[in-house]
Amino acid sequence: MEDRDSDGSRGITPDAAPDGAAVAAPDGAAVAQAAAGGPLDLNLLRTFLAVYRSGSFTAAARLLGLSQPTVTTQIRTLERQVGRELFERLPRGVAPAPFADALAARVVDPLDALAAVTGHGGPLDGAPAGPVHLAGPAEMLCHCALPALAPLVEKGVRLRVTTGLTDPLLDELRAGRHDLVIATARPRGRSLSSVALADEEFVLVAAPSWAERIGGDRRITAEGPGALHGVPLVTYADDLPIARRYWRHVFGKRLTCEASVTVPDLRGVLAAVIAGAGFSVLPHYLCRDALAAGTLALLHDPEDAPINTGYLVQRPGSADNPHVALVRDHLIQSARGW
C-alpha cells in the first residue's frame, strides 16, 4: 500500500507486525539484512542522505541539482529495495523513520569520505573555496558576528550575509540557501546540526533623564513595574515579545501597556531609547557600550534576569566547503565574549 507525502512522493508502507506485536527499532544488523538481497546503488544512497539531512524532498533536489520527481523516484526505489519506509511524510517536509536513522548511521561516513575522494566533497587542485552564506538576526550579525569574522575576510573568506527571523531562515537553510544560521531557538527535529552559541541577557533600560525621573532600580525594586506607569514603551513589535517575557520572568505579572514606538530592529529601539523616547527591554550585548558610556541607564538589576540562548545551525552537506567550518569554529570561539 502506498501513501502520498507533502512533496508529492509516494512511500512504501511497511508491513504490520503479526498479531499487533511491537516492531523493535532497527540496528546495524537489520540494515545489513535489509540490503542482503544485493548491493544498494550509491546514487540512491546519496539521495537518501540528502533527504535525511535536509528534511525535505524539495530541498534535497536543490542540493543535488536534481528535479524533485527524480528524488522522489529514487527514494521510492530505495524503499522497495530495503523493504522499509524511510521517511514519514509531514505537512512540511519529511521526518526520518527509525530504519532511516540506522541506515544513515551506516552510510554517512563512507559516503562523505567517498565524496571527498571523488571530488564531490570540496574544492580540489587549489580551487578557491566558495562563499559562506551566513544568516541570522540583523542585530547579532551586525553587532557581534561580522566584527568577529573581519579577520577571516582579510584572509580570503568570502561572506554572503542575510538577515531575518529564525523560522524562515531555518526553512531556507534546509532548502540549501544558507550554510550557517544564527538561530534564536534550537531547531526542531533531527535533520539540522546545532550548537549553543551564546546567551543573551535582557535588561530594562532608559535614558539617564528618564531613570532619574523614575527613581531607578531602588524604586522599581520597592514598587515593582508600577513605577513605570506613564513612561513611554519603545519595543520591537506591537505584541511586545521581549518586554512581555521580562515582565513575566522578573515581575511575575502580565505586561498590559501598549507601545508608544515600535521599530522592527533592536538597534533602532536602542537609538530611540538613548534619545529619550522612553524605556525598553534589550539584549545586554547591544546595550553594553551605551551603559558604559553613560548614555543609557539600567533601570532594574534583578538577581535572575531572563536570558535567551542563541544557536549556530549548520546546513547538512555544507562541510564540502572548508571555509564553512572555519567560520563556524571562529564564531563559536568568539561568542564566548559576546
Note down, in words, how this protein is organized.
Helix content is 44%, strand content 17%. It is α/β, with parallel strands linked by helices and 338 residues long. The strands form 4 sheets. Strands 5, 6, 7, 8, 11, 12 and 13 form a 7-stranded mixed beta sheet that branches. Strands 1-2 form a two-stranded antiparallel ribbon. Strands 3-4 form a two-stranded antiparallel ribbon. The protein starts with a strand and ends with a helix.
Topology readout:
Layout: E1 2-4, E2 10-12, H1 28-34, H2 42-54, H3 57-64, H4 68-82, E3 87-89, E4 94-96, H5 98-118, E5 132-136, H6 138-154, E6 159-163, H7 166-174, E7 180-183, E8 193-206, H8 208-214, H9 216-223, E9 234-235, H10 241-251, E10 261-262, H11 266-274, E11 279-283, H12 284-293, E12 297-298, E13 307-314, H13 322-334
Parallel strand pairs: 5-6, 5-7, 9-10
Antiparallel strand pairs: 1-2, 3-4, 7-13, 8-11, 8-12, 8-13
Helix pairs in contact: 2-3, 2-4, 2-5, 3-4, 6-13, 8-9
Radius of gyration: 25 Å
Order of helices and strands: EEHHHHEEHEHEHEEHHEHEHEHEEH
In DSSP terms (H or I, runs of 4 or more residues), the helix count works out at 13
Class computed from helices, strands and strand pairing? alpha/beta
Strand content: 15-25%
Main traits of this protein?
two-stranded antiparallel sheet, 17% strand, disordered N terminus, alpha/beta, 7-stranded mixed sheet, 13 helices
Summarize the structure.
The protein has 338 residues and is of the alpha/beta class.
